[in-house]
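G., the chain you wanted modeled:
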Amino acid sequence: MSRNLKISLGFVAVFVGLALLGAIFGGGLPNPLPRVQEIKLTMPNNMVLVAPKGKIKTETDAATHKTTVVAADGFQIMREVPAKYEPPPEKNPCVEAPDRKPELALKEVREERHYGAVVGSDLTTEEKNGVVYVRAPNGAGMFERRASFRGFWTWVAAFLTLCILSFLYDDNPFYKFTEHLFIGVSAAYWMCVGFWSVIVPNLLGKLWPSLVARINPGIGGEPANWLYLIPLAFGILLLMRLSPKGGWLSRWALAFIVGTTAGLNFVGYLQSDFVGQIEGAIGPLVAVDPVRGFQLGATFTAVLMFVGVLTCLVYFFFSSEHKGVMGAASRVGIWVLMVTFGASFGYTVMGRLALLVARMEFLFSDWLNIILK
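Predicted structure as tokens:
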């Protein structure tokens, strides 16, 4: 029997053993089969639900005075957005200008439908050309029955968590599979986030505003800015990295990005880290409050800070030999540095332990139901 097969059989045995432990001593394992549950969503005041006249059923509860509207084939979801994007007129402080209400138009921002019920106390229905428009001026609740896979994904999350923890024993195929899955999913997720949050609004929204207006209506009135062809060209040069022969072209864009980022962040780091630390280290050694008078704790902190900074600087002063007073100060500086590094390392370890505790809480609470939150 090979080594990987032995480790895999041991992992399966641990997984099944924990599941049996939760089934016997816990409150019951989550059901991995999908189940139907009713989900409540919020209907904003600028949302309009559209359906044919003959497909809508309306009921009013006499006790709560709430109206329930249901469409047999589902509602088409639309939103009321400004039809024209005009800049506000210049106001004359001497003349009271009348309030102008923007002209609204219905647009299907996203291709989706609502197949549940809409419940609200002030729903309004309007019929035009055999089509009914349902509005909620003060908002309403949208109830829809959907299949829930919460139990199934809980089992998947527990399996992947144990796959990662299996590396504590030894490297194995389960850990490698989860590692590759995590890296692939993370890369795909951040690629999608970068595309929709950076490329679409900041590049396509500047070069082709009318196209992006279907997703973000607020960009529709802005003129095209052709200066953004420059970052588009740099982006294409970066993609040349994938070409075996044209990979050298990506160095120009990469050099520009590195140089620009370093130049922009240099000032920020200089003010926050360098100048900020000097400003924090320079201060009065004797703290005196105008009301309370002499402050012993603040004075001790200031003196300790001054001694620590001074001794650390002495330790890194190599122009003279560390003997006598210089040697004693440098040894104190070493202790200060070690305490600082230890505190920083301890803070990092505490953060990692917090993540481990969270995963243990998930395993024994959400999956095995042995402990209660």
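The chain is about 50% helix and 20% strand.

Shout if anything looks off.
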